[in-house]
Amino acid sequence: MVLAVKGRPHVTILVANLPAERDRRVIRECLSLEANGFDVTVIAPRGDRNLRILPGSRNTRLKPYPLIVTGSGVLSFAAEFVWSFLCITIRLFGELFRGRAHGVQVCNPPDIYFPLAVIWRALGRPWVFDHHDLCPEIYAARAGGSANRWVFRTLVLLEWLTLRTATAVFATNESFRENALQRGVRPEKLTVVRNGPAAHEIARGDSPADETAAEDVHTIAYVGVFGPQDNVEVAVLAAEELARRRSRRDWRMVLAGDGESMDALTKLAAERGLHDLVEFAGWLDGPSVDALLRTATVAIQPDLPTRMNDLSTMAKTVEYLGRGVPVVAVDLIETRRTAGEAARYLPTGSPAEFAEAIDELLDDAAQRDRMRGTGLDRFATMLAWEHQARQYVSVWRRLLARRLPEPATTPSPVEGRRASVVIAAHNEADVIGRCLDTLLADARDGEFDVTVVANGCTDGTARVAGGRPGVRVVELDVASKPAALNAGDGVAVGFPRVYLDADVVVTTESLRLLADAVGPSTDEPTGRPLAAVPRRALDLTRRPLPVRAYYAVHRHLPALRNGLFGRGAIALSAAGRDRFESFPDVLADDLFLDSLFEPAEKREVAGATSVVATPRHVDDLVRRLTRVRAGNAAMRAAAAHDTASEGVRDADRRSWLRDVVLPRPWLAPAAVCYVLITLTAAARARRADPGTWERDQSSREVPKPRIGGIDELVRTGDTHGSERR
């Protein structure tokens, strides 16, 4: 029998597509909640009939329901979802009547539980959406070219309703966050909580993979689901191709997992005569996964280059990196963001490409060692569950703060954590309050030194900023961003130094992550970057199609992955700030800072996000691009005349085609808008006065709440939600 500790807040987690004991993410979430003083119940399909408590937990209850209908087509899927909805509803209200379910977390697929969200929020209890999968994109991927547009639109609507009725949303990566923003979710409701194992799940000590390979055979591993969208058949066909390239005696392929494609895969391996090379290990528990990957030489990720996979973080990738296993994968956006240089990327993911890459890695121990080191470093510094758990638990602490005992709501002091923030603001009265309120929402007294430099303002910027406790305001008569940044530097106290634009949104936790990345002023610079930036999340809510099309291409440009520009927030260590005396009189301050540092001295910080509002109209977008191009041209001209750093990067005019559209041909229609808008801005920039500030006012408009919409409906009954802070 499982007993709750009296007075503890209780979270009920709903899962519809897997038994609770097989969902590794849900297991980690439950354990994190337990460790922080919460009681947990999981309602999910029945797996092991003997389980009443989640394996590995102290007292997480399992409330399983029988799954008597399973889907394979549209109608059978619909029947399965209706059955799941009924079972989950009955069990959830049972939790409510027993005095539990103070907060509810629903995990998709499917996206059908929004009616319960409305009821729960009307009861004054938070409802959190843990966004595991992009259901419309999954359907499109499984349907191939025969997707029914009405089914697809229905799935988009269901996803929209699920996102909009939630009190808070957990996004598994930045792409999911951007998708939610496009669906109209407010940035402050979104928190990125990535997938990945905890450090303690991985056995300590050096990986025995290379020693095992030297004595016996190399192991090529795959761990994950066997579904149509997972494309595991390519792994089998790659094994067949690899057998033609090298001896069959020095390697084997182990495919660990299960799913609807299992029968087809075993049949394919038998037909191709691969029974001696390809082993199907079945579904493995955590320790068994660890044992397999610690003896693996190479791991594979064969997911197809579809929109769904492009935007998804594969849990198996983080599992591979946590054990230092070099990865061979199809070139996908989120895979690159996750693995970095720890993976070998393939253009199309054909069996021949996989076989060639695996063959080369099996013969190149030095390259494997380099990739292993990179993977272990990325896991330890940004991907391990411990980093995600802090974000995850902090949301539940905020939502259920009234039910937590007093000690649990008081954050422990962190010695030496302090950053100074400089914000140059010219006529930013409409947005500076939002910027400061979000930045300091969870800050402790004296944790940050914040300076707002109101330069040449004719509105209430200084008054609004000065009304925030602890914010220093400096007023300049001249409208000049470089002068404002230099003035802010003159009065700012301490390092790291964060330069922030007034029209972006950065949370307190993101600011802390930026400060931690470059280190406090007492740290030596060795081993840390000198400059750090958050990841950029674009707010494209209610933007016209040409604007969204432009950014569909722009967001993939390689320069945005490794540069300091385009985020509206840059953190410098004391050593980094010593690289220059003062900001030059140019508009492109972010390009100037980018020019001062080598690639190894810069870092994009995982978990830290800046929400950048995009222009609301095409004319405003052109106006913004004109300013950017003119400023960049002036910066490059200054470098050419030795009045600025020689490290200013050259403009790559063909990158949009070479690096974005050709690898992603489905973006070709969007590329037409991108090219037309870019050429228009370039023509205007050539005629523009270099000192003119082509301001985009539309992105600074704070939208009024929609009366009568779903957000308004659920907000009226929400007493513990994120809106009531």
TrEMBL record:
Return the Basic and acidic residues bias intervals: 687-704, 712-725
A molecular function GO annotation:
glycosyltransferase activity
The record's keywords, sorted A to Z, are: Glycosyltransferase, Transferase
Q: InterPro entries from the xrefs?
A: Glyco_trans_2-like (IPR001173), Glyco_trans_4-like_N (IPR028098), Nucleotide-diphossugar_trans (IPR029044)
Q: Where is the Glycosyltransferase subfamily 4-like N-terminal domain?
A: 32-196
Q: Where is this region: Disordered?
A: 687-725
Q: Which residues form the Glycosyltransferase 2-like domain?
A: 420-517
User: Is Transcription regulation a UniProt keyword of this protein?
Assistant: no
Entry keyword Transferase: yes
Entry-linked Gene3D superfamilies? Glycogen Phosphorylase B (3.40.50.2000), Spore Coat Polysaccharide Biosynthesis Protein SpsA, Chain A (3.90.550.10)
**PANTHER family (alphabetical):** BLR6297 PROTEIN, GLYCOSYLTRANSFERASE
Identify this protein by name: Glycosyltransferase involved in cell wall bisynthesis
* Organism name: Micromonospora krabiensis
